[in-house]
Each structure stands twice: as C-alpha cells, then as structure tokens.
Amino acid sequence: MFGYTEAQVSHFGLTFLMGGLLVFLVFILANVINHIKPGIGGKIALYSMLSFGASAFFTLLALNHWGIA
C-alpha cells in the first residue's frame, strides 16, 4: 500500500491511531460524565477503567517495542 509493507502500516496504526483513539475516548467519557452527572465514586470508576485500559495498551506497546512480548 503506497510502497509500505504490511508490518509498517500495522505498526503505524497501532501506535498513532490507537493512541489517538484513546485520547478521543477521554473526551467522549468527559462528555458522558457531564450529561449523566454521576457522583464522585462514579467518576472515579469510569476514569479508572479508561486509565486501566490505556495503561494495558501502552504496556503491551512497550513490551512489543523491546521484543519481550
């Protein structure tokens, strides 16, 4: 595809596009929290689930970069 190998395209998509999707999900989650007005416990639960998923993604990305996983 445009002179790039499949590995290069998938590496670009995994690093930049998925990272951008996580940033976009923060804005979506902030909008949802603004509309449903949960308590402080609900906000903590929603943001902690998003941060847990993001940390798992970045950990896997780092492990793949170092050739461990």
Which descriptors apply to this entry?
mainly alpha, 83% helix, 0% strand, 2 helices, 69 residues, elongated
Could you give a quick summary of the protein structure above?
This protein is mainly α. It has helices spanning 6-36, 40-65.
Helicity level, as a percent range? over 70%
**Shape field:** elongated
The tally of helices reads 2
Give the termini distance in whole angstroms: 27 Å
User: Main sheet, how many strands, which sense, barrel?
Assistant: none
The unreliable regions are none
What pattern of helices and strands is seen along the backbone? HH
Strand content: under 5%
How many structural domains can be distinguished in the coordinates? Answer: 1
Helix/strand-derived category reads mainly alpha
- Overall mean pLDDT: 88
Task: Tell me what the structure shows.
- The protein has 69 residues and is an all-alpha fold.
- It has one domain.
- The protein is built from 2 helices and no strands.
- It has helices spanning 6-36, 40-65.
- Helix 1 packs antiparallel against helix 2 (40-65).
- The protein is elongated and about 50 Å long.
- The model has no long low-confidence stretch (mean pLDDT 88).
Topology:
Blueprint: H1 6-36, H2 40-65
